[in-house]
Amino acid sequence: MNFTQIYDLIGCAGVVLFIVGIAAVYITVWNIIYLRGVLRSFKQSFRGMENTTAERIRRAYGKSTNPLICIVRDVVTTHAAHSEDIRAEVAYLFHKNFKPVNNALTWLKLIAAVSPLLGLLGTVLGMVRVFRAIAENVSPDPTMLAAGIWTALVTTVMGLVVAIPALMAYYYLTLRIKELRIEAVEYSYRSLESARVAAKYEAEQAAA
Q1: Is residue 39 part of a domain?
Q2: Which of 47, 67, 130, 188 gives 20 to 30 Å between its CA and that of 116?
Q3: Which residue range(s) make up the domain with 105?
Q4: Tens digits of per-residue pLDDT, 119-133?
Q5: Residue 153, domain member (yes or no)
């Protein structure tokens, strides 16, 4: 079956839905793998961020690209001195460092919202095809009518098949992001406290 035959079966709306569905799968898989890798890498690196001063954290992790490490590093080295509301600082840094993920979630939600509308568009186009065949022929070809009805029905199904998993993936990833934000707040408090204790200990050692 070549592209022309597939196009005749699903119409332009169906082709668009297929492309949109592939995009939704890519966004979902990429973000799941990325978020898991970020958390795993962060937990492995966090041992080196405990019981050390802010200056050492800055030197050791200044070039890190892991967004969670960047959040904790910036809270300990910079933002804690600007505000005592660590949750607000973490929220700002979280939005800043996880911007690609937030953008991907926006696209995923858009796909979930638009897919049923594309399916409805395919349904309307299919029914227009059927009514045109009826209007242009005194005795319409049943095969032509069936093809139009097929296009109308299959695009509706395709729209739902794309929208439902996309919406489920969006809420799953949203929950993962919320969990990571809680992790960022918790580890920021822990790192900030351990950095203060380490700085106090070094000051006492220097004074002794």
Answers
A1: no
A2: 130
A3: 3-31+53-200
A4: 888 888 878 777 777
A5: yes
- pLDDT category at 5 given cuts 50, 70, 90 is low
* pTM attached to this predicted model: 0.81
Q: Residue 50 carries which side chain, given as an amino acid letter?
A: E
Q: How many domains does the chain have?
A: 1
| Secondary structure class of 115 (helix, strand, coil) | helix
Helix axes 99-136, 86-97, angle to 10 degrees: 50
Distance CA 156, CA 172 (A): 25
Are 142 and 133 within 8 A, CB to CB? no
Q: Write down the pLDDT at residue 130.
A: 75
DSSP assignments along 117-171, one per residue:
HHHHHHHHHHHHHHHHHHHH-SS--HHHHHHHHHHHHHHHHHHHHHHHHHHHHHH
Assess contact for 108 and 101: CB atoms under 8 A.
no
Report how far residue 74's alpha carbon sits from residue 54's, in angstroms, rounded to the nearest whole number.
Answer: 9
Please answer whether residues 191 and 76 qualify as being in contact, where contact means their C-beta atoms are separated by less than 8 angstroms.
yes
Would 41 be classed as within a structural domain? no
Residue 43 φ/ψ, nearest 5 degrees: -65, -30
Specify the higher pLDDT residue, 14 or 195: 14
Instruction: Say yes or no to pLDDT of 38 above 80.
Output: yes
Mean pLDDT score, 46-64? 72
- The residue among 104 and 148 whose pLDDT is bigger is 104
Task: Write the CB contacts of 136 (distance below 8 Å, at least 6 apart in sequence).
Answer: none
